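Figure 2 data, in text form.
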Amino acid sequence: MKLASYVTNADATIRIGAIVEVGSERHLIDLAGVHARLPTPPAGAPVSLPADMRLLLDMGEPGLDAARRAVAFAATELARSSTISVWKSERLIHGENEVRLLAPVPRPGKIIMVGSNYKSHITEAGPAASKLPAARSEKHTWPAAFSKFPSVLIGHRDAIVYSRHTTQLDYEAELCVVIGKRCKDVTEENVDDVIAGYTIANDVSMRDLQFAEMRRGLILLGKNLDTSSPMGPYLVTKDEIPDPQNVQIKCWVNGEVRQNDSTANMTFSVRQLVAYFSRMTLEPGDIIATGTPAGVGIFWDPPEAALLRVGDTIDIEIEPIGRLSNTVVAEAT
């Protein structure tokens, strides 16, 4: 099941949508609205669904099961062409190009970003060791991480603003885990129980700021200027990615392949990451971005040949999830 948070041109109210495929057509349904049309739900099932992704995830499996029933109901109803026109007039369905897709969880409580988690990325950083703290290229026995703030999140097709405070804007394609259950001290064997699903992130980085901060043992502005965290387009439930260590992650800049690797090459697996970071309490909607493979711009020779410029379009694809696309724009004066 593919879930999305969205707003329409006519209404800025955030809603949860789900993708429904009928033949060759794809529709984005208003999940709460369609659920309200369901025949009498089974005993004990939720009588309504929220319009906030964190609240939906907080309902746990009963909430997701109710969402699946709404999707199945919509697929049956939309097989009739007459339903499509009626539901469009009632704004129960939309074309994907008719809405603005937000980050799937627009305001997560935590955004945990894992660094140096692909062997290829660690290797490519080797020749640039003089630019980085010595510990950057060391073999880690535990996952290194930093945080991003919910305020820097943007969605699919939103603009990445090239801030006047940086001269080295870069991209990083990442698979993200979305937590679905409040948990603490989860064992690796039980990680599946607390994952709701997965999405895509572009860890936009301001390298000149980032590396200066890292030399003092910190990262803040180098990862957290406005619009530096595109995420989406969908939250795909875990049943559609039964093995998160066997998906391909690709990134293009202006149609040129820059990153192409498998999550099989992570240093720390999804299970290890969730178990490790659950040393602190994780809550529904929390995000863990699992690191990026080789091919980022800063480690090209010269970096200027690959770092982002105004007008560049970055596409990141993880096949079960979809494609996240964003274009760089100049900062308004």
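Caption note: The chain has a mean pLDDT of 94.
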